[in-house]
Every structure is written in structure tokens, then in C-alpha cells.
Design goal:
about 80 residues, alpha/beta, Conserved hypothetical protein from pyrococcus furiosus pfu- 392566-001, ParB domain, 5 strands, about 30% strand
Length: about 80
């Protein structure tokens, strides 16, 4: 299976609301992404018209916080 990295609009991605992260971790990640860019894409899956985060919620939160409109993501195809 070949994985394609796509640019996805951040506002089309739903977070996992149950996850709680320490503020300093997100702040450090924001600083790192500002200086080096996003080094690893997040992993998401399409659920109806939205994407759900499978892996990389802290990266998504940091990118959203620093004001990015899109994020690099691998979109998993879920077959039922």
C-alpha cells in the first residue's frame, strides 16, 4: 500500500476531545514547528465529511494554534 501525504485544511479535522495535554508540551511543539516546520505528517481517516485524527493530535493542535490553515496528513482509507 502506498501512502500519499496530502495538505488538508485544519478546520476539516476533528480532535479527540477526550485527550488532555500539558500546555508546555503544546507550546514547545509550536516553537519547534515555527522554526523547523512540521517534520512528520499526522494520520487521519475520513468519517463522512470530516477527518478524524488517528495519530498526531498534539501536532495538529500546535499547527492550529500557530495559525496554519493546512497540515500535512496521511489519509487512511477505511474499508468496511
Amino acid at each position: 500500500m502506498m501512502l500519499e501525504i496530502r495538505e488538508i485544511r485544519i478546520d476539516r479535522i476533528c480532535p479527540n476531545c477526550c485527550m488532555v495535554y500539558e500546555e508546555d508540551i503544546i507550546v514547545r511543539m509550536c516553537d519547534d514547528i515555527k522554526s523547523r516546520g512540521l517534520q512528520e505528517p499526522i494520520v487521519i481517516e475520513l468519517v463522512e465529511y470530516w477527518f478524524r485524527i488517528v495519530d498526531g493530535e498534539k501536532r495538529w493542535r500546535a499547527c492550529k494554534r500557530i495559525g496554519l490553515n493546512t497540515i500535512k496528513a496521511v489519509v487512511l482509507e477505511v474499508s468496511l
